[in-house]
Amino acid sequence: MAESKKILANYVPVYVMLPLGIISTENVLLDKESLKQQLLKLKTAGIDGVMSDVWWGIVESKGPKQYDWSAYRSLVELIKECGMKMQAIMSFHQCGGNVGDEVTIPIPQWVLDIGEENPDIFYTDREGNRNKEYLTLGVDHLPLFHGRTAVQVYGDYMKSFKETMADLIGEVIIDIEVGLGAAGELRYPSYPQSLGWVFPGIGEFQCYDKYLKAAFKEAATKAGHPEWELPDNAGTYNDTPDSTEFFASNGTYLTDKGKFFLTWYSNNLITRGDDILDEANKAFLGCKVKLAAKVSGMHWWYNSPSHAAELTAGYYNLYDRDGYRPIARMLSRHDAILNFTCLEMRDSEQDAAAKSAPQELVQQVLSGAWREHIEVAGENALSRYDSYAYNQILLNARPNGITNKGVPKMHGFTYLRSSDDLFEDTNFELFKIFVKKMHADQLLFFSFCFCRSIVQTQQSMVKN
Predict the structure, then answer these.
(1) Neighbouring residues of 173: CB distance < 8 A, sequence distance ≥ 6
(2) Where is the active site (predicted)?
(3) Which residues contact 390 (CB under 8 A, 6 or more apart)?
(4) Handedness of CA 314, 320, 324, 330 (dihedral sign)
């Protein structure tokens, strides 16, 4: 009955992302008592639970299938002790080298050792720079990892997690977000700070390892164009669209060759998400959890005709082509949640030169997901503690109505992240107000805002 009331009231659950380094690279839960106090403090704000990465580089660090879940088991039990729920991220990426990364957690050393002998297991740009934060999707189905493919490695990891946490899944762990790329997002690592990228650079395509080069050549040959090669005119990380031949007005992206490449590049990404989520469904079959996948908020150059930053990340999105709805369609096959970022951003806060449009991007992605009848969830992209950001999140996270499945359109919102700044007195008071508004009955909430506006207007008239 309580759950049905939440649905009728359009109650939006609020979670808080825990700090990145609560479990050390030595697989130790750090300062457990301090973390407990942090969780209890968060609970006073009325949040529904917390989210935490579960790092592949920590758990399977000793060797293939040598899993050590002890620290994470302690973490989940502590969350349970504090009376909270948990969203667990299967984090198959490196921590470090992306916006907001405060610690460094590499992928497992035994995988890096394979990369020393065969660096083509990593995403590679046109200049040959290797990115070791995630394995290229070119090796998803190649048995290069002590007889296992990359997809099998991810699947085995999730099965082991399920077996170890079986008594806590459904009771404490309610969502499993499956890492599908850089920063845990379904994308190519097109804008790595570790390789010198600076906002609002367009980024670079990441398909020049030998496996993806061969796959493209095979696809082009089958299409009757064996002469087609991967792009060599798409610029570098910090270029603008108009400074390149590929993304400029009437550029390569509009030609048959460009369209073929972008279709191939983006379809590979969707296929890899589909394949790994298949493994997740097998691993968590019968468990009372929801699967989720995160899509990146590439809002810069959204108002440029070529949408260059989105294209290099693998989102083939143009004015006349929706690059996100196919992702939502893939997620619908797995009954998975689409988790999207940058819900706090306003167009007016962005640098005009970057041609950003986060508000329009959020609406496009969420609307496309709802049309595919899947649930959506959201996050803020950057740490914010002000009412302007919270009000923008409220606008995005509290849509009218419910889906045809009778569940809230917004599955939940995860605030990024718990920190000393969040717990500062004024910041925390604002955060508590935000949580209450996310939980409030929508009709009553907006009625209250309307009435308050009338009262304020009347007071102003009296004063004058």
Answers:
(1) 76, 85, 86, 87, 88, 165, 289
(2) 185 (proton donor), 379 (proton acceptor)
(3) 344, 384, 430, 431, 433, 434, 437
(4) negative
**pLDDT recorded at residue 2:** 42
Chain-centroid distance, C-alpha 316: 17
Confidence check: pLDDT of 96 > 70: yes
149 has binding-site annotation: no
Active site residue 204: no
In the chain, count of helices (H) and strands (E)? Answer: 15, 10
**Tokens 């990465």 -> residue:** 53
Residue partners of 275: CB distance under 8 A and separation at least 6: 140, 141, 151
Q: What is the pLDDT of residues 161-194, one digit of tens each?
A: 999 999 999 999 999 999 999 999 999 999 999 9
What is the SS3 assignment for 420?
Answer: helix
- The tokens for 417 are 């992240």
Encoded tokens for 8? 């009728």
**Nearest to 96, CA basis, from 88, 106, 84, 104:** 104
DSSP, residue by residue, 300-360: TTTTSTT-HHHHHHT---BTTB-SSHHHHHHHHHTT-EEEE--TT--GGGS-GGGT--HHH
Domain boundaries, the chain: 2-463
381 labelled ligand-binding:
yes
Does 407 have pLDDT greater than 60?
Answer: no
Active-site choice (60, 279, 375, 379)? 379
**Alpha carbon distance 262, 273 (integer Å):** 17
**Distances in whole angstroms, Cα of residue 61 to Cα of each of 56, 76, 164, 178, 458:** 7, 20, 17, 19, 65
For residue 299, say whether it is annotated as part of any ligand binding site: yes
Instruction: Identify the helix (H) or strand (E) that includes residue 456.
Output: helix 442-463
Range 2-463 has CATH code 3.20.20.80: yes
For 213-272, how does the pLDDT look when each residue is reduced to its tens digit (9 = 90+)?
999 999 999 999 999 999 999 999 999 999 999 999 999 999 999 999 999 999 999 999
- Beta-carbon contacts of 427 under 8 Å, excluding residues fewer than 6 positions away, are 385, 421
Q: How far apart are CA 90 and CA 349, in angstroms?
A: 33
234 marked as binding residue: no
Cα–Cα–Cα angle for 296, 133, 159, nearest 5°? 85
Annotated catalytic residue 379 = yes
Q: Which of 67, 68, 79 is nearest to 32 (CA)?
A: 79
The residue annotated as part of the active site, out of 185, 279, 310, 375, is: 185
